[in-house]
Each structure stands twice: as C-alpha cells, then as structure tokens.
Design a protein that fits this description.
With 127 residues, the protein is mainly beta. The protein contains one helix and seven strands. Strands 3-6-5-4-2-1-7 form a seven-stranded mixed β-sheet, covered by helices on one side. A hairpin with a 2-residue loop joins strand 5 and strand 6. The chain starts with 6 loop residues before the first strand and ends with a strand. 28% of the residues are buried.
Length: 127
C-alpha cells in the first residue's frame, strides 16, 4: 500500500504536494496517525533531494505536531533544503490543512555512495 504521493518542484528547489487523509491512515478515531504524518514529511523532504539526483538516507527526523489532521482533509506538504555540507543535507518540511500548519519537521540526510540505489523520478512532477 503506497501513499500515492506526487510532488511538484519549484525553480527554487522546493517541492509541494497534496495528500488526501484517508480514514485507513487514522490512529485515534477521525485523526491521522502521527507516524503517517512523519512519513509524509519525510517523503516530501526526500523528494527535494531526489529531484537533484541526490540519493540519501534519513539520519535524523524531528517532528513538531501543531494540530491534528482529521480524516477527509487535504494536506498540503511543502519541503525545502535549508543547508548542505559535503554529504549531509538539512531539510525543512511543513504540513498544512486549510492554510493552517498541522506539523513541521527538520531532518538531516546523508548522501549515499551506493551505486545500487534506484531513484523514483515518476513521483516528481515539474511545474
């Protein structure tokens, strides 16, 4: 079961995408599970690196939950690179519902030197 995420990239290197908060992802009744929210933000931030042809793994992910995401909502995901140093990239992600921040994240990713890592560019849509 995939999340069905499609991201659009902007000229500044940021990405955005929308996610429908299906009830199959709920934790408490009517509320999307926090682990799913973390996965959504991690996916958005990873796609910033994918579109730059940078294979990387999440090293640290810190989430701040501001408001619960109700099932049936459309979640706007946004992400951008905020720092890079050699093999370490720091990214920021945000999740909004109706223009109100529901969650935000800061993560560090480490570039992979593995030649066997396959990138999925089908889920990145140029705008």
């Amino acid at each position: 079961m995939g999340l069905g995420l499609k991201f659009h990239h902007e000229g500044d290197g940021s990405v955005w995408g929308d996610f429908f908060a299906d009830p199959k992802f709920e934790g408490y009744l009517g509320i999307i599970h926090g682990g799913i929210v973390a996965t959504l933000l991690d996916s958005a931030m990873t796609h910033c690196l994918l579109m730059k042809d940078i294979p990387a793994f999440t090293g640290r992910l810190s989430i701040r939950y501001s408001n619960p995401i109700r099932t049936g909502a459309v979640v706007r995901l946004e992400a951008k690179v905020i720092d890079e140093s050699h093999k370490i990239f720091t990214l920021e992600g945000k999740a909004y519902v109706d223009g109100k921040k529901a969650a935000s994240a800061v993560a560090k990713y480490m570039r992979s030197d593995s030649p066997n890592l396959r990138l999925d560019f089908h889920s990145v849509i140029p705008v």
